[in-house]
Amino acid sequence: MTTGTSGPAAAVRSRGLTKRFRHQVAVNSIDLEVPTGSVYGFLGPNGSGKTTTIRMLLGLIRPTSGEHELLGQPMPRRAGAVLGRVGSLVEGPAFHPYLSGRANLVRLDAADRQSDPGTASRRIDAALDRVGLLAAARKRYRAYSLGMRQRLAIAAALLEPRELLVLDEPTNGLDPQGTREVRSLVASLAADGATVLISSHLLSEVEQICTHLGVMHVGNLVAQGSVAEVRSGSEPRVRVDSDREEDAARVLRMLGIADVKVSPGQIQGLLGQIAVEKIVPALVHEGVPVLGFAVAGQSLEDRFVQLTGEGFDVSG
Ligand SMILES: Nc1ncnc2c1ncn2[C@@H]1O[C@H](COP(=O)(O)OP(=O)(O)OP(=O)(O)O)[C@@H](O)[C@H]1O
């Protein structure tokens, strides 16, 4: 792959990766760059193309066009050499409800033709230990909490040592406790040196653990970089506290402030090129009582709403 422009090897890199289903472009020419050692939050609303991208990355479906590499190896040409170093969780393995967590891993490991039966027991215990399920290893799967089930699915991805983990919506459907369990597990896997690509439609679920973000919106990668870089792409906003919201909004619009939004007691808008010092005098001149005033960068959440046109917490 002729992509040697981006410095040290990325754990995942794609160029023009595209997937078309009939007439629908599910993933539109995306250039992913997941730095080695990062926790890369792959974010976007439902249906924005995250799972399709991940399936292409792992060689589960064939891209319509574009190319990519994992751990510096071109895919799918070098799949045999690289996939053993990549653990993944996509749609979750099928676990048997009446078998214990450990027995389920024994079955999965035995079904993997690449794995060494001689070391199975040790590897399975190590994976269970890694996800904090050793004490519950002999409990039936059906007695596991949602968080334990998801941790077992991650254990299944850890039956071999992995340099890269690709986890598709591992917190989806979990309660807050389960989400915390998975989040702290992912953080500790990253602390051990694995690169982690974790997808989510909820920023709030992964924000605390990510070093980097990629944001999908209708098949396009609309932002990518370190968390600070993605946040700094946002424009400062003006916030006015006033009980005369509509009058205040009118003055802000008159000054040329864009994207003015009114909520009870508060009016916000994009500062743009407007001189900050002109705003309060203009409001006062129009008889609008100003009870508070601030200019601040957007929160990451606001930034995502701006990028994707929707809140990230709506469909949780
Ligand atoms: N096998 C398929 N055939 C046709 N269309 C598909 C197929 N798989 C996905 N799509 C479409 O591609 C688009 C992207 O879907 P994808 O599952 O990748 O999104 P996503 O971001 O992972 O969302 P979700 O979180 O809901 O899985 C959607 O419009 C979906 O309907």
From TrEMBL:
<keyword id="KW-0813">Transport</keyword>
<dbReference type="InterPro" id="IPR003593">
    <property type="entry name" value="AAA+_ATPase"/>
</dbReference>
<dbReference type="InterPro" id="IPR003439">
    <property type="entry name" value="ABC_transporter-like_ATP-bd"/>
</dbReference>
<comment type="similarity">
    <text>Belongs to the ABC transporter superfamily.</text>
</comment>
<keyword id="KW-0067">ATP-binding</keyword>
<dbReference type="GO" id="GO:0005524">
    <property type="term" value="F:ATP binding"/>
</dbReference>
<feature type="domain" description="ABC transporter">
    <location>
        <begin position="12"/>
        <end position="243"/>
    </location>
</feature>
<dbReference type="InterPro" id="IPR027417">
    <property type="entry name" value="P-loop_NTPase"/>
</dbReference>
<dbReference type="Pfam" id="PF00005">
    <property type="entry name" value="ABC_tran"/>
</dbReference>
<dbReference type="InterPro" id="IPR017871">
    <property type="entry name" value="ABC_transporter-like_CS"/>
</dbReference>
<keyword id="KW-0547">Nucleotide-binding</keyword>
<protein>
    <submittedName>
        <fullName>ABC-2 type transport system ATP-binding protein</fullName>
    </submittedName>
</protein>
